[in-house]
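Cross-posting from the modeling subforum.

Setting up a comparison between two proteins and wanted a second pair of eyes on the formatting. Protein 1 (sequence, then structure tokens):
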Amino acid sequence: MLRGNFTGYRLHRSISILLGFMMMLTPVFFDQNAIFYLTPFGSLFLFIYVFKATGKFSISLLIFLAATLLSEYLFLTDYEKNITLTCLASIVGYAALLFLMKPVLKKRVTAFSKHNLVELIVGFITLSFVLLYIVYLVMPFIPETSLFLLTVVVFGITMSVCFIIPNYNLHPDNIGLIMIGGSYIAGTVFGFIYYFLYNEIPMLMMATFMMVFMKVTLATYITRFKRIEKDSTYQEYI
């Protein structure tokens, strides 16, 4: 059974992870744009993995992967020139990610008093500080500030949801959302540092690693939606 599952759909996730490591090493030996010869295949194998594991063709996941791929490409090639398309693609990707989390978002809280309000507040303050500090550093380089700030707001809302859900829905599998949000923030921060502040290969490698980790974790989390909802002790967590 385990071997059947691996060859059936987990193999696709493993191939995507392997491609992710290849993407990390690509800037060391080739031009940074060479990453984008591998990125579409990594996203494709993740999509196939989710499709085979769930038996469902997820339009939201497809839109998220495509929008994220487009925004990454436009960002690294010429962000100042492509800022409008980059921001629009990013917003579409964030919206698709929120829609992907709909099965968990629709669950109502039954005992909010038992949940981690202190951790929630600290996490929100930390997230806000990181985003505002990065915005402060790169704002002088941004030609289209209004659209950029709108993108930052939507990104902040999306990441807040990733951190809030595990605090009111304490199912163990929801820890994946914290990993998704944390790696997404880290990948974005490293990307901006690389492009605007410190144009060195290690920054690009870290940004690539975090984004690959985020996508793999998201794909894995999506395949566990049914297990989360069918858990016999589900109500104990909300």
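Protein 2 (same layout):
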Amino acid sequence: MTTRRNTNEDEITDAVDAATVPEPDVLERARMIIVDKLGEWDSLGLDELVESVCEAYEAPSGEPLRVADVNPDAPDTNSPALRNLRYARAARTAVIALIEAGTIVPVAALDEDTALVGEGSRTGTPPATTPTATTQMETTDSAARQAGTDEVLVSVGPLPEGRRFALATS
């Protein structure tokens, strides 16, 4: 049996995107976690909210993606890296839903937010608050070569407007 490897960044991103769609119950729990966290603080950065959701699901960041994770024929959707990406995506999606519902609002970033995050845009290099995963070289060698780099960073899902959020006041 031959396993087809993804060879470009778009194939890798599509495979990760398909494998990280959060279930409705995960999105609901992510919304509850975010509201609870924001009830404890004046405001929190997006990265802190994402990390809170990932910690609740015991899906810490820092694990590299493996070949099996992005195999389009049979992805390992329960790997540590994909679990982290799935719950990070759920957190970002929940933030967007909570903003649309008027439950939370974006607030001005603090000076330390800019220092930690840096500047970035959705069309360029992803900002540091966007959870990313580095795929192992054997998976992304060709894609990295095409991009002129040593590795390819993958982020999936929606990215809310704003870097810091607070509960909406009535």
